[in-house]
């Protein structure tokens, strides 16, 4: 067992895992490590920090993911993030978007492992919280055996506390970011082999994991499993995560209490000048597969964005859901 111990986490996802999403996910699972969207180091240093980095203490444990390729800037951004209270700083070495490539960071850093190590070393020297890396198994025509081993060797040599691996290559030319999440084949065995090479280091796996049960199956081979789109689009699967991870019987989940909590949270956000849809857009998939789920989605999607919409919209949508006979697993 490594000192870093987060067997289950929810991936950093651009435009999705903002503070409202993380607060919502935290109501569903106490165990998951939550990640921010990627924040570019320059933005953390020069931008409106409270808007970019602020979060509710209820979200903890929460990690800040940074994007960048300049060690000094990443070190400064990491210091700022630690000052905001984040319990971990993560370096993005996996995002394949054009915007990230134009800044020479994200997945293209797989080609420059020495630079990645320089960045991680600078961040480690700047903060006392864990510094971790999220990467791919390789990019473009790289050999995943050599590419991933080399990156792992270098970042662990400078003190990285964990390596989270999206078990796909990224194709920087010819595929869109969306296609890069689906088309390159998953190679979980490659990540398992890396763990065999590093039995005393934390290696986590990400990519295409559809359920908590599938995540737990990965934990037979690896230290951590990270859910992405499944957690976002069908967040109800998170309701039973803690019980499954703890190998204890699941209790009935109190959805009424959840709705009250989210309505109160939305009301406070609106009172600060926000809009209801900032919160409810992350909740539309909560009751996926249950009677009334379509009406729930319809009310939140149509009524939530309207000017003046308030938390009563959330309660009206909940009234359309039939939870009779529902268990944690079914949700």
TrEMBL record:
GO terms for molecular function: tRNA-dihydrouridine20 synthase activity. FMN binds at residues 12-14, 65, 134, 166, 206-208, 228-229. Residues 10-302 form the DUS-like FMN-binding domain. It holds the Pfam family Dus. The record marks 92, 178, 181, 294, 297 as: Interacts with tRNA. The active site is at 95 (proton donor). It catalyses: 5,6-dihydrouridine(20) in tRNA + NAD(+) = uridine(20) in tRNA + NADH + H(+); 5,6-dihydrouridine(20a) in tRNA + NADP(+) = uridine(20a) in tRNA + NADPH + H(+); 5,6-dihydrouridine(20a) in tRNA + NAD(+) = uridine(20a) in tRNA + NADH + H(+); 5,6-dihydrouridine(20) in tRNA + NADP(+) = uridine(20) in tRNA + NADPH + H(+). Gene3D superfamilies: 1.20.120.1460, Aldolase class I. Keywords: Flavoprotein, FMN, NADP, Oxidoreductase, RNA-binding, tRNA processing, tRNA-binding. Catalyzes the synthesis of 5,6-dihydrouridine (D), a modified base found in the D-loop of most tRNAs, via the reduction of the C5-C6 double bond in target uridines. Specifically modifies U20 and U20a in tRNAs. NCBIfam families: PRK11815.1, yjbN. This is tRNA-dihydrouridine(20/20a) synthase. It comes from Ollibium composti.
């Amino acid at each position: 067992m490594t000192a870093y111990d987060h067997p289950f986490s929810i991936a950093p996802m651009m435009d999705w895992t903002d503070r409202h999403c993380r607060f919502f996910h935290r109501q569903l699972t106490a165990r998951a490590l939550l990640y921010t969207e990627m924040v570019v180091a320059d933005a953390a240093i020069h931008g409106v920090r409270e808007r970019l980095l602020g979060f509710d203490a209820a979200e903890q444990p929460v990690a800040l993911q940074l994007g960048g390729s300049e060690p000094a800037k990443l070190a400064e951004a990491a210091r700022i993030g630690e000052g905001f209270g984040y319990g971990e700083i993560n370096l993005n070495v996996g995002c394949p978007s054009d915007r990230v490539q134009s800044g020479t960071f994200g997945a293209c850093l797989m080609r420059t492992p020495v630079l990645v190590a320089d960045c991680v070393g600078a961040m480690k020297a700047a903060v006392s919280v864990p510094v971790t890396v999220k990467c791919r198994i390789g990019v473009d025509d790289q050999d995943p055996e050599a590419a991933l081993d080399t990156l792992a060797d270098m970042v662990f040599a400078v003190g990285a506390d964990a390596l989270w691996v999206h078990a796909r290559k990224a194709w920087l030319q010819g595929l869109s970011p969306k296609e890069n999440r689906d088309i390159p084949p998953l190679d979980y065995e490659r990540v398992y082999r890396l763990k065999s090479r590093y039995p005393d280091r934390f290696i986590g796996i990400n990519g295409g994991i559809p359920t908590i049960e599938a995540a737990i199956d990965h934990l037979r081979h690896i230290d951590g499993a990270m859910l992405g789109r499944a957690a976002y689009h069908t967040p109800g699967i998170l309701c039973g995560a803690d019980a499954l991870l703890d190998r204890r019987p699941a209790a009935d989940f109190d959805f009424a209490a959840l709705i009250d909590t989210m309505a109160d949270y939305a009301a406070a956000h609106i009172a600060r000048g926000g809009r209801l849809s900032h919160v409810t857009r992350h909740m539309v998939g909560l009751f996926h597969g249950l009677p009334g789920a379509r009406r729930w989605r319809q009310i939140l999607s149509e009524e939530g964005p309207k000017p003046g919409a308030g938390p009563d919209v959330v309660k009206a949508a909940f009234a359309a859901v039939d939870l009779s006979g529902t268990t944690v697993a079914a949700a």
